[in-house]
């Protein structure tokens, strides 16, 4: 489910000892995580089957208002590194957001008033915690679940969005500049690609 292939099937005509390499391009839902199965019908009533594990990166948000992580307006308690060597990012990213109390601030322009969800595209190895403040509203401390790495692969990146009572939090925003502050509360690194507000659909 959620995957199509081009081509989905093709003929194979090989002599003993020969081999065929064919590119099959998958189209899959963002963040697909599962198995791809292949069936080989030999034409004499014999069928061979195989499968391989596959995982698709979680892509960049669409229809949202962004601020790149490296374009923070201020930081206190540490110094992040701006990286251009992490594949799968929307631009650059930040790393070395490691000390307890290391605080970063961003400003995001939202041109239209309305209801929005907040997102942060991040990656880390074993999980991390951050205090989040949006427009002076202190949301408290939040867990950023482990993604498997610090951005060495596009597969490491995922999106965080604060959830309460089983639902993403909704923020009523006025048009104009929104201020987001995030503070390291556990002394564990948490690389960041961007933060964003996405209209509630």
Question: Any chance you could write out the topology, listing elements then pairs?
Answer:
Elements lengths: L2 E4 L18 E4 L4 E9 L5 E9 L9 E4 L5 E3 L4 E3 L9 E3 L7 E8 L3 E10 L4 E7 L2 E8 L13 E3 L2 E2 L2 E2 L2 E3 L2 E9 L6 E9 L2
Antiparallel strand pairs: 1-2, 3-4, 5-18, 6-9, 7-8, 9-17, 10-13, 10-16, 10-18, 11-12, 11-17, 14-15
Q: Supply Rg.
A: 22 Å
Low-confidence stretches: none
Number-wise, the strands total 18
Morphology call: elongated
The major pleated sheet works out as: 5 strands, antiparallel
Total helix count?
0
Distance between the first and last residues' Cα: 24 Å
User: Which bin fits the share of residues in helices?
Assistant: under 10%
What's the pLDDT, averaged over the residues?
Answer: 93
**Helix and strand succession?**
EEEEEEEEEEEEEEEEEE
Strand portion: over 45%
Overall structural class, as computed from helix and strand content, comes to mainly beta
């Amino acid at each position: 489910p959620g995957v199509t292939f081009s081509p989905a099937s093709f003929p194979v005509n090989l002599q003993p000892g020969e081999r065929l390499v064919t590119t099959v391009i998958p189209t899959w839902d963002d963040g697909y995580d599962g198995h791809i199965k292949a069936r080989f019908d030999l034409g004499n009533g014999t069928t061979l089957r195989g499968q391989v594990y596959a995982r698709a990166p979680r892509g960049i948000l669409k229809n949202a208002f962004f601020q790149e992580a490296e374009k923070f307006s201020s930081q206190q308690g540490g110094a992040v590194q701006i990286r251009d060597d992490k594949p799968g990012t929307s631009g650059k990213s930040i790393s070395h957001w490691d000390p307890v109390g290391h605080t970063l601030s961003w400003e995001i322009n939202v041109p239209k008033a309305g209801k929005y969800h907040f997102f942060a595209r991040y990656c880390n190895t074993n999980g991390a915690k951050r205090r989040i403040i949006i427009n002076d509203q202190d949301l408290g401390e939040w867990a950023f679940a482990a993604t498997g790495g610090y951005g060495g692969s596009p597969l490491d990146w995922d999106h965080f969005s604060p959830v309460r009572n089983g639902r993403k939090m909704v923020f009523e925003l006025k048009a104009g500049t929104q201020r987001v502050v995030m503070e390291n509360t556990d002394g564990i690194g948490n690389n960041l690609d961007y933060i964003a507000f996405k209209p509630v659909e």
